[in-house]
UniProtKB/TrEMBL annotation:
Cell inner membrane keyword on record: no
This protein's name: Putative MFS family arabinose efflux permease
Organism whose genome encodes this protein: Novosphingobium fluoreni
UniProt-listed InterPro entries: MFS_dom (IPR020846), MFS_trans_sf (IPR036259), TM_effector (IPR010290)
Top-level taxon: Bacteria
Gene3D superfamilies (alphabetical): MFS general substrate transporter like domains
Keywords: Cell membrane, Membrane, Transmembrane, Transmembrane helix, Transport
Membrane topology: Multi-pass membrane protein
Upper taxonomic lineage: Bacteria, Pseudomonadati, Pseudomonadota, Alphaproteobacteria, Sphingomonadales
Protein backbone atom coordinates (compact mmCIF):
# COMPACT_ATOMS: atom_id res chain seq x y z
CA UNK A 1 0.00 0.00 0.00
CA UNK A 2 2.83 2.39 0.87
CA UNK A 3 4.68 1.79 -2.39
CA UNK A 4 1.44 2.04 -4.36
CA UNK A 5 0.88 5.50 -2.90
CA UNK A 6 4.52 6.31 -3.61
CA UNK A 7 4.05 5.44 -7.29
CA UNK A 8 0.82 7.49 -7.42
CA UNK A 9 2.51 10.53 -5.87
CA UNK A 10 5.47 10.20 -8.26
CA UNK A 11 3.15 10.01 -11.27
CA UNK A 12 1.18 13.00 -9.99
CA UNK A 13 4.40 14.96 -9.53
CA UNK A 14 5.44 14.07 -13.07
CA UNK A 15 2.11 15.37 -14.36
CA UNK A 16 2.44 18.61 -12.43
CA UNK A 17 6.01 19.25 -13.58
CA UNK A 18 5.06 18.57 -17.19
CA UNK A 19 2.00 20.85 -16.96
CA UNK A 20 4.19 23.63 -15.58
CA UNK A 21 6.57 23.26 -18.54
CA UNK A 22 9.45 22.51 -16.16
CA UNK A 23 10.16 19.03 -17.52
CA UNK A 24 13.72 18.39 -18.69
CA UNK A 25 15.27 15.08 -19.82
CA UNK A 26 17.03 14.71 -16.45
CA UNK A 27 13.89 15.39 -14.41
CA UNK A 28 11.90 13.04 -16.67
CA UNK A 29 14.37 10.22 -16.06
CA UNK A 30 14.36 10.77 -12.30
CA UNK A 31 10.56 10.85 -12.02
CA UNK A 32 10.15 7.83 -14.30
CA UNK A 33 12.70 6.05 -12.11
CA UNK A 34 10.61 6.84 -9.03
CA UNK A 35 7.40 5.63 -10.67
CA UNK A 36 9.14 2.45 -11.79
CA UNK A 37 10.55 1.89 -8.31
CA UNK A 38 7.08 2.11 -6.80
CA UNK A 39 5.70 -0.30 -9.39
CA UNK A 40 8.53 -2.76 -8.83
CA UNK A 41 8.01 -2.69 -5.05
CA UNK A 42 4.23 -3.10 -4.93
CA UNK A 43 3.90 -5.48 -7.90
CA UNK A 44 5.10 -8.74 -6.29
CA UNK A 45 3.11 -8.32 -3.02
CA UNK A 46 0.05 -7.36 -5.07
CA UNK A 47 0.24 -10.56 -7.12
CA UNK A 48 1.16 -12.68 -4.10
CA UNK A 49 -1.97 -11.48 -2.26
CA UNK A 50 -4.20 -13.48 -4.63
CA UNK A 51 -3.94 -16.55 -2.40
CA UNK A 52 -5.49 -14.57 0.46
CA UNK A 53 -8.47 -13.42 -1.61
CA UNK A 54 -9.82 -16.64 -3.16
CA UNK A 55 -10.42 -20.21 -1.94
CA UNK A 56 -7.64 -22.73 -2.53
CA UNK A 57 -9.57 -24.58 -5.24
CA UNK A 58 -9.88 -21.38 -7.30
CA UNK A 59 -6.28 -20.28 -6.83
CA UNK A 60 -4.81 -21.43 -10.20
CA UNK A 61 -7.58 -19.69 -12.16
CA UNK A 62 -7.29 -16.53 -10.04
CA UNK A 63 -3.52 -16.44 -10.54
CA UNK A 64 -4.02 -16.87 -14.28
CA UNK A 65 -6.50 -13.99 -14.49
CA UNK A 66 -4.34 -11.74 -12.33
CA UNK A 67 -1.27 -12.50 -14.43
CA UNK A 68 -3.23 -11.96 -17.63
CA UNK A 69 -4.44 -8.54 -16.53
CA UNK A 70 -0.87 -7.56 -15.65
CA UNK A 71 0.56 -8.79 -18.96
CA UNK A 72 -2.29 -7.31 -20.99
CA UNK A 73 -1.57 -3.92 -19.45
CA UNK A 74 2.13 -4.30 -20.18
CA UNK A 75 1.48 -5.35 -23.79
CA UNK A 76 -1.45 -3.07 -24.65
CA UNK A 77 -0.46 -0.09 -22.50
CA UNK A 78 2.27 1.34 -24.77
CA UNK A 79 -0.08 1.38 -27.75
CA UNK A 80 -2.81 3.10 -25.74
CA UNK A 81 -0.27 5.58 -24.38
CA UNK A 82 0.89 6.40 -27.88
CA UNK A 83 -2.67 7.08 -28.99
CA UNK A 84 -3.24 9.40 -26.00
CA UNK A 85 -0.01 11.28 -26.64
CA UNK A 86 -0.87 11.71 -30.30
CA UNK A 87 -4.42 12.86 -29.55
CA UNK A 88 -4.03 14.98 -26.39
CA UNK A 89 -0.36 15.38 -25.58
CA UNK A 90 2.12 14.01 -23.05
CA UNK A 91 0.67 15.90 -20.07
CA UNK A 92 -2.69 14.21 -20.54
CA UNK A 93 -0.98 10.82 -20.79
CA UNK A 94 0.92 11.46 -17.55
CA UNK A 95 -2.28 12.58 -15.82
CA UNK A 96 -4.23 9.49 -16.91
CA UNK A 97 -1.37 7.33 -15.66
CA UNK A 98 -1.63 8.95 -12.22
CA UNK A 99 -5.42 8.58 -12.13
CA UNK A 100 -5.13 4.87 -12.99
CA UNK A 101 -3.48 4.26 -9.62
CA UNK A 102 -6.61 5.39 -7.77
CA UNK A 103 -8.90 2.36 -8.41
CA UNK A 104 -6.38 -0.16 -7.13
CA UNK A 105 -5.52 2.10 -4.18
CA UNK A 106 -9.21 2.28 -3.24
CA UNK A 107 -9.57 -1.48 -3.70
CA UNK A 108 -6.66 -2.16 -1.34
CA UNK A 109 -8.06 0.30 1.18
CA UNK A 110 -11.48 -1.37 1.14
CA UNK A 111 -10.08 -4.92 1.28
CA UNK A 112 -10.95 -6.37 4.66
CA UNK A 113 -7.80 -8.43 4.98
CA UNK A 114 -7.69 -10.88 7.87
CA UNK A 115 -4.00 -11.27 8.59
CA UNK A 116 -2.73 -13.99 10.89
CA UNK A 117 -0.43 -12.55 13.55
CA UNK A 118 3.15 -13.70 12.87
CA UNK A 119 4.52 -16.25 15.30
CA UNK A 120 8.06 -14.94 14.89
CA UNK A 121 9.46 -11.48 14.20
CA UNK A 122 9.98 -10.71 10.50
CA UNK A 123 13.38 -11.22 8.95
CA UNK A 124 15.59 -8.25 8.39
CA UNK A 125 15.83 -7.03 4.80
CA UNK A 126 19.32 -8.42 4.22
CA UNK A 127 18.45 -11.78 5.72
CA UNK A 128 15.21 -11.96 3.73
CA UNK A 129 17.08 -11.33 0.48
CA UNK A 130 19.61 -14.03 1.30
CA UNK A 131 16.82 -16.46 2.22
CA UNK A 132 15.08 -15.79 -1.08
CA UNK A 133 18.25 -16.34 -3.11
CA UNK A 134 19.09 -19.56 -1.25
CA UNK A 135 15.57 -20.85 -1.78
CA UNK A 136 15.74 -20.26 -5.54
CA UNK A 137 19.18 -21.87 -5.77
CA UNK A 138 18.00 -25.00 -3.95
CA UNK A 139 14.58 -25.28 -5.64
CA UNK A 140 15.02 -26.80 -9.15
CA UNK A 141 11.46 -25.94 -10.34
CA UNK A 142 11.87 -22.28 -9.35
CA UNK A 143 15.39 -22.16 -10.79
CA UNK A 144 14.15 -23.53 -14.12
CA UNK A 145 11.40 -20.89 -14.34
CA UNK A 146 13.81 -18.04 -13.53
CA UNK A 147 16.39 -19.18 -16.07
CA UNK A 148 13.80 -19.65 -18.78
CA UNK A 149 12.28 -16.25 -17.97
CA UNK A 150 15.66 -14.60 -18.52
CA UNK A 151 16.21 -16.43 -21.81
CA UNK A 152 12.69 -15.70 -23.01
CA UNK A 153 13.12 -12.02 -22.17
CA UNK A 154 16.42 -11.85 -24.07
CA UNK A 155 15.06 -13.67 -27.11
CA UNK A 156 11.78 -11.74 -27.33
CA UNK A 157 13.16 -8.27 -26.57
CA UNK A 158 13.28 -7.29 -30.24
CA UNK A 159 9.48 -7.15 -30.29
CA UNK A 160 9.68 -4.10 -28.02
CA UNK A 161 13.07 -2.50 -28.70
CA UNK A 162 13.05 -2.74 -32.50
CA UNK A 163 9.36 -2.11 -33.18
CA UNK A 164 9.94 1.57 -34.09
CA UNK A 165 12.56 0.46 -36.63
CA UNK A 166 10.16 -2.12 -38.03
CA UNK A 167 7.61 0.62 -38.60
CA UNK A 168 10.17 2.95 -40.20
CA UNK A 169 12.68 0.74 -42.03
CA UNK A 170 10.75 -2.39 -42.98
CA UNK A 171 7.26 -0.99 -43.56
CA UNK A 172 8.17 2.60 -44.39
CA UNK A 173 5.67 4.20 -42.02
CA UNK A 174 5.73 6.71 -39.19
CA UNK A 175 4.34 7.14 -35.66
CA UNK A 176 0.86 6.04 -36.73
CA UNK A 177 2.24 2.82 -38.17
CA UNK A 178 4.16 2.21 -34.97
CA UNK A 179 1.01 2.69 -32.91
CA UNK A 180 -0.94 0.28 -35.11
CA UNK A 181 1.78 -2.37 -34.75
CA UNK A 182 1.76 -2.03 -30.97
CA UNK A 183 -2.02 -2.20 -31.01
CA UNK A 184 -1.94 -5.43 -33.01
CA UNK A 185 0.48 -6.93 -30.51
CA UNK A 186 -1.77 -5.81 -27.64
CA UNK A 187 -4.90 -7.25 -29.24
CA UNK A 188 -3.04 -10.53 -29.66
CA UNK A 189 -2.17 -10.47 -25.96
CA UNK A 190 -5.84 -9.94 -25.07
CA UNK A 191 -6.89 -12.83 -27.33
CA UNK A 192 -4.26 -14.99 -25.63
CA UNK A 193 -5.92 -14.23 -22.32
CA UNK A 194 -9.23 -15.59 -23.59
CA UNK A 195 -7.49 -18.82 -24.62
CA UNK A 196 -6.28 -19.50 -21.09
CA UNK A 197 -9.41 -21.36 -19.86
CA UNK A 198 -9.15 -23.75 -22.81
CA UNK A 199 -5.47 -24.47 -22.14
CA UNK A 200 -5.48 -24.83 -18.37
CA UNK A 201 -5.96 -28.62 -18.48
CA UNK A 202 -2.97 -29.14 -20.79
CA UNK A 203 0.53 -29.78 -19.38
CA UNK A 204 2.22 -26.46 -18.85
CA UNK A 205 5.44 -27.61 -20.50
CA UNK A 206 3.51 -28.38 -23.71
CA UNK A 207 1.82 -24.98 -23.70
CA UNK A 208 5.12 -23.18 -23.09
CA UNK A 209 7.03 -25.14 -25.74
CA UNK A 210 4.31 -24.71 -28.37
CA UNK A 211 3.98 -21.00 -27.64
CA UNK A 212 7.76 -20.57 -27.87
CA UNK A 213 7.96 -22.28 -31.26
CA UNK A 214 5.07 -20.29 -32.72
CA UNK A 215 6.46 -17.05 -31.29
CA UNK A 216 9.89 -17.71 -32.79
CA UNK A 217 8.38 -18.37 -36.23
CA UNK A 218 6.19 -15.25 -35.92
CA UNK A 219 9.20 -13.05 -35.14
CA UNK A 220 11.05 -14.41 -38.17
CA UNK A 221 8.01 -13.71 -40.35
CA UNK A 222 7.91 -10.18 -38.95
CA UNK A 223 11.48 -9.69 -40.19
CA UNK A 224 10.26 -10.62 -43.68
CA UNK A 225 7.19 -8.35 -43.61
CA UNK A 226 7.25 -5.32 -45.87
CA UNK A 227 3.70 -4.06 -45.45
CA UNK A 228 1.41 -3.19 -42.57
CA UNK A 229 -1.13 -5.79 -43.62
CA UNK A 230 1.52 -8.52 -43.51
CA UNK A 231 2.93 -7.43 -40.13
CA UNK A 232 -0.38 -7.05 -38.28
CA UNK A 233 -1.50 -10.73 -38.29
CA UNK A 234 2.05 -11.79 -37.40
CA UNK A 235 2.01 -9.48 -34.38
CA UNK A 236 -1.43 -10.73 -33.38
CA UNK A 237 -0.02 -14.25 -33.14
CA UNK A 238 3.16 -13.01 -31.43
CA UNK A 239 1.16 -11.13 -28.79
CA UNK A 240 -0.96 -14.19 -28.07
CA UNK A 241 2.08 -16.45 -27.63
CA UNK A 242 3.96 -13.88 -25.55
CA UNK A 243 0.99 -13.69 -23.21
CA UNK A 244 0.89 -17.48 -22.87
CA UNK A 245 4.58 -17.70 -22.00
CA UNK A 246 4.59 -15.02 -19.30
CA UNK A 247 1.31 -16.17 -17.79
CA UNK A 248 2.39 -19.81 -17.59
CA UNK A 249 5.65 -18.83 -15.90
CA UNK A 250 3.72 -16.71 -13.41
CA UNK A 251 1.31 -19.52 -12.60
CA UNK A 252 4.16 -21.96 -11.97
CA UNK A 253 5.91 -19.49 -9.66
CA UNK A 254 2.83 -18.86 -7.54
CA UNK A 255 1.54 -22.43 -7.37
CA UNK A 256 4.87 -24.12 -6.63
CA UNK A 257 6.35 -21.58 -4.19
CA UNK A 258 5.39 -21.81 -0.49
CA UNK A 259 3.54 -18.86 0.97
CA UNK A 260 6.55 -17.48 2.87
CA UNK A 261 8.62 -17.03 -0.31
CA UNK A 262 5.94 -16.21 -2.89
CA UNK A 263 6.53 -12.44 -2.93
CA UNK A 264 10.30 -12.85 -3.22
CA UNK A 265 9.92 -15.51 -5.93
CA UNK A 266 7.63 -13.21 -7.93
CA UNK A 267 10.06 -10.33 -7.53
CA UNK A 268 12.87 -12.56 -8.81
CA UNK A 269 10.76 -13.68 -11.76
CA UNK A 270 9.82 -10.13 -12.71
CA UNK A 271 13.42 -8.94 -12.32
CA UNK A 272 14.62 -11.87 -14.45
CA UNK A 273 12.13 -11.11 -17.21
CA UNK A 274 12.81 -7.36 -17.17
CA UNK A 275 16.56 -7.94 -17.03
CA UNK A 276 16.35 -10.35 -19.94
CA UNK A 277 14.40 -7.83 -22.01
CA UNK A 278 16.98 -5.13 -21.19
CA UNK A 279 19.88 -7.36 -22.23
CA UNK A 280 18.05 -8.47 -25.35
CA UNK A 281 17.25 -4.88 -26.32
CA UNK A 282 20.96 -4.07 -26.30
CA UNK A 283 21.89 -7.29 -28.12
CA UNK A 284 19.35 -7.07 -30.94
CA UNK A 285 19.87 -3.34 -31.23
CA UNK A 286 23.56 -3.97 -31.83
CA UNK A 287 22.75 -6.61 -34.46
CA UNK A 288 20.33 -4.23 -36.19
CA UNK A 289 22.90 -1.43 -36.14
CA UNK A 290 25.56 -3.52 -37.87
CA UNK A 291 23.48 -5.83 -40.07
CA UNK A 292 20.13 -4.07 -40.52
CA UNK A 293 16.72 -4.13 -38.86
CA UNK A 294 15.55 -7.26 -40.65
CA UNK A 295 18.53 -9.27 -39.47
CA UNK A 296 18.10 -8.01 -35.93
CA UNK A 297 14.47 -9.16 -35.85
CA UNK A 298 15.27 -12.49 -37.53
CA UNK A 299 18.09 -13.20 -35.07
CA UNK A 300 15.63 -12.62 -32.22
CA UNK A 301 13.23 -15.17 -33.72
CA UNK A 302 15.99 -17.74 -34.16
CA UNK A 303 17.04 -17.16 -30.55
CA UNK A 304 13.47 -17.81 -29.40
CA UNK A 305 13.48 -21.17 -31.17
CA UNK A 306 16.83 -22.01 -29.54
CA UNK A 307 15.49 -20.99 -26.13
CA UNK A 308 12.53 -23.33 -26.64
CA UNK A 309 14.91 -26.17 -27.51
CA UNK A 310 17.09 -25.44 -24.46
CA UNK A 311 13.93 -25.39 -22.36
CA UNK A 312 13.60 -29.13 -22.93
CA UNK A 313 16.57 -29.49 -20.56
CA UNK A 314 14.93 -27.17 -18.00
CA UNK A 315 11.53 -28.74 -17.89
CA UNK A 316 8.78 -27.20 -15.81
CA UNK A 317 6.70 -29.74 -13.93
CA UNK A 318 3.00 -29.29 -13.35
CA UNK A 319 1.94 -28.97 -9.70
CA UNK A 320 1.54 -32.44 -8.25
CA UNK A 321 -0.88 -33.84 -5.74
CA UNK A 322 1.42 -32.98 -2.83
CA UNK A 323 1.03 -29.42 -1.65
CA UNK A 324 3.84 -26.89 -1.40
CA UNK A 325 2.00 -25.09 1.38
CA UNK A 326 3.44 -25.17 4.86
CA UNK A 327 2.33 -28.00 7.14
CA UNK A 328 0.97 -27.42 10.62
CA UNK A 329 3.58 -25.70 12.74
CA UNK A 330 5.53 -27.98 15.03
CA UNK A 331 5.83 -27.24 18.73
CA UNK A 332 8.94 -25.33 19.70
CA UNK A 333 11.70 -27.60 21.03
CA UNK A 334 12.51 -27.55 24.72
CA UNK A 335 15.48 -25.47 25.85
CA UNK A 336 16.84 -24.62 29.28
CA UNK A 337 19.47 -22.00 28.44
CA UNK A 338 17.10 -19.05 28.28
CA UNK A 339 17.77 -18.49 24.58
CA UNK A 340 16.80 -15.28 22.89
CA UNK A 341 15.73 -14.89 19.29
CA UNK A 342 19.22 -13.81 18.25
CA UNK A 343 21.14 -16.43 20.22
CA UNK A 344 23.32 -18.52 17.96
CA UNK A 345 24.72 -20.12 15.97
CA UNK A 346 22.53 -23.17 16.53
CA UNK A 347 23.94 -26.57 15.58
CA UNK A 348 21.49 -29.44 15.01
CA UNK A 349 22.36 -33.15 15.01
CA UNK A 350 19.81 -35.81 14.04
CA UNK A 351 20.65 -39.48 14.58
CA UNK A 352 19.37 -42.32 12.36
CA UNK A 353 19.78 -46.08 12.54
CA UNK A 354 20.00 -47.78 9.13
CA UNK A 355 20.76 -51.39 8.20
CA UNK A 356 24.05 -51.55 6.26
CA UNK A 357 22.34 -53.10 3.22
CA UNK A 358 20.05 -50.02 3.04
CA UNK A 359 22.92 -47.54 3.33
CA UNK A 360 23.11 -46.56 -0.35
CA UNK A 361 19.36 -46.01 -0.67
CA UNK A 362 19.28 -44.02 2.58
CA UNK A 363 22.18 -41.85 1.42
CA UNK A 364 20.48 -41.04 -1.88
CA UNK A 365 17.15 -40.20 -0.21
CA UNK A 366 18.87 -37.98 2.34
CA UNK A 367 20.34 -35.85 -0.45
CA UNK A 368 16.78 -34.70 -1.14
CA UNK A 369 16.34 -34.00 2.56
CA UNK A 370 19.49 -31.89 2.53
CA UNK A 371 18.19 -29.94 -0.42
CA UNK A 372 14.99 -28.89 1.31
CA UNK A 373 16.87 -28.17 4.55
CA UNK A 374 19.14 -25.73 2.69
CA UNK A 375 16.17 -24.33 0.79
CA UNK A 376 14.38 -23.54 4.04
CA UNK A 377 17.33 -21.87 5.73
CA UNK A 378 19.83 -24.48 6.95
CA UNK A 379 23.57 -23.93 6.52
CA UNK A 380 26.49 -26.35 6.37
CA UNK A 381 24.29 -29.41 5.90
CA UNK A 382 26.14 -32.72 6.01
CA UNK A 383 25.52 -36.43 6.46
CA UNK A 384 28.02 -38.65 8.29
CA UNK A 385 28.32 -42.38 9.03
CA UNK A 386 29.90 -43.81 12.16
CA UNK A 387 33.09 -45.68 11.22
CA UNK A 388 32.74 -47.92 14.29
CA UNK A 389 29.04 -48.67 13.84
CA UNK A 390 27.95 -48.97 10.21
CA UNK A 391 24.28 -48.57 11.11
CA UNK A 392 24.67 -45.17 12.84
CA UNK A 393 24.19 -42.04 10.72
CA UNK A 394 24.17 -38.37 11.77
CA UNK A 395 22.60 -35.48 9.88
CA UNK A 396 24.09 -32.10 10.80
CA UNK A 397 23.26 -28.54 9.87
CA UNK A 398 23.34 -25.13 11.48
CA UNK A 399 21.29 -21.95 11.58
CA UNK A 400 22.66 -18.46 12.36
CA UNK A 401 20.22 -17.77 15.22
CA UNK A 402 17.51 -19.45 17.26
CA UNK A 403 14.81 -17.58 15.36
CA UNK A 404 16.36 -18.69 12.06
CA UNK A 405 16.14 -22.27 13.26
CA UNK A 406 12.48 -21.89 14.23
CA UNK A 407 11.74 -20.34 10.84
CA UNK A 408 13.49 -23.22 9.13
CA UNK A 409 11.19 -25.66 10.97
CA UNK A 410 8.06 -23.65 10.18
CA UNK A 411 8.90 -23.54 6.46
CA UNK A 412 8.58 -27.29 5.99
CA UNK A 413 5.91 -28.09 3.41
CA UNK A 414 3.84 -31.21 2.85
CA UNK A 415 6.18 -32.16 0.01
CA UNK A 416 9.22 -31.71 2.27
CA UNK A 417 7.65 -33.90 4.94
CA UNK A 418 6.95 -36.61 2.35
CA UNK A 419 10.59 -36.49 1.23
CA UNK A 420 11.73 -36.94 4.83
CA UNK A 421 9.27 -39.77 5.43
CA UNK A 422 10.59 -41.62 2.38
CA UNK A 423 14.05 -41.49 3.91
CA UNK A 424 12.72 -42.64 7.28
CA UNK A 425 11.07 -45.68 5.67
CA UNK A 426 14.48 -47.29 5.06
CA UNK A 427 15.62 -46.79 8.67
CA UNK A 428 15.32 -49.55 11.27
CA UNK A 429 12.63 -47.86 13.37
CA UNK A 430 10.96 -45.62 10.78
CA UNK A 431 11.80 -42.54 12.82
CA UNK A 432 14.77 -40.48 13.98
CA UNK A 433 16.66 -41.89 16.93
CA UNK A 434 17.57 -38.62 18.58
CA UNK A 435 17.63 -34.87 17.89
CA UNK A 436 20.15 -32.66 19.65
CA UNK A 437 20.39 -28.89 19.41
CA UNK A 438 23.53 -27.06 20.49
CA UNK A 439 24.27 -23.42 21.08
CA UNK A 440 27.66 -23.04 19.48
CA UNK A 441 30.23 -21.05 21.42
CA UNK A 442 33.29 -20.15 19.32
CA UNK A 443 36.63 -20.27 21.15
CA UNK A 444 37.38 -16.92 22.77
CA UNK A 445 33.80 -15.68 22.56
CA UNK A 446 33.21 -12.89 25.09
CA UNK A 447 29.72 -14.23 25.63
CA UNK A 448 31.21 -17.33 27.24
CA UNK A 449 32.10 -15.24 30.30
CA UNK A 450 29.59 -15.75 33.08
CA UNK A 451 29.12 -12.05 33.72
CA UNK A 452 28.29 -11.23 30.04
CA UNK A 453 24.74 -11.15 28.67
CA UNK A 454 23.92 -12.35 25.19
CA UNK A 455 24.17 -9.08 23.19
CA UNK A 456 21.85 -7.70 20.57
CA UNK A 457 18.63 -8.79 22.24
CA UNK A 458 15.76 -6.42 21.67
CA UNK A 459 12.89 -8.51 22.98
CA UNK A 460 13.23 -11.48 25.37
CA UNK A 461 12.15 -14.74 23.77
CA UNK A 462 10.76 -17.90 25.28
CA UNK A 463 9.42 -20.96 23.40
CA UNK A 464 6.12 -20.83 25.26
CA UNK A 465 5.40 -17.33 24.00
CA UNK A 466 6.56 -18.03 20.44
Amino acid sequence: MVMLLFAFCSATLLTGVAAAHLLTPGILLVLCFLVGTGNAMFGPPWQASVSEQVPAEDLPQAIAFNSMSYNIARSFGPALGGIIVAAAGAVTAFGITAVCYLPITIAFYMWQRVAEPPRLPPERVGGAIVSGIRYLINAPPMRAVILRSVMTGVAGAALFSLMPLVARDLIGGGPLTYGILLGAFGVGAVSGAFLMPRLRHLPKEHVIATSGIILGVAIILLALSRSLWAAMPVLLVAGCCWMQLLTQYNIVIQTQAPRWITGRALASYQAATAGGIAMGAWLWGSVAQHMGTGWGIAASGIAMLLVTAIGRKLRIADPGAVSETEVKQMADPDEVLGLTGRSGPILIEIDYSVDPDQARQFYELMQNVGQFRRRNGAYQWSLARDVGDGSAWVERFSCPTWHDYLRQRDRMTARDRLVHELALEVTRTGQVERVRRFLERPTGSVRWRSESRDPGVLVPFSPSSG
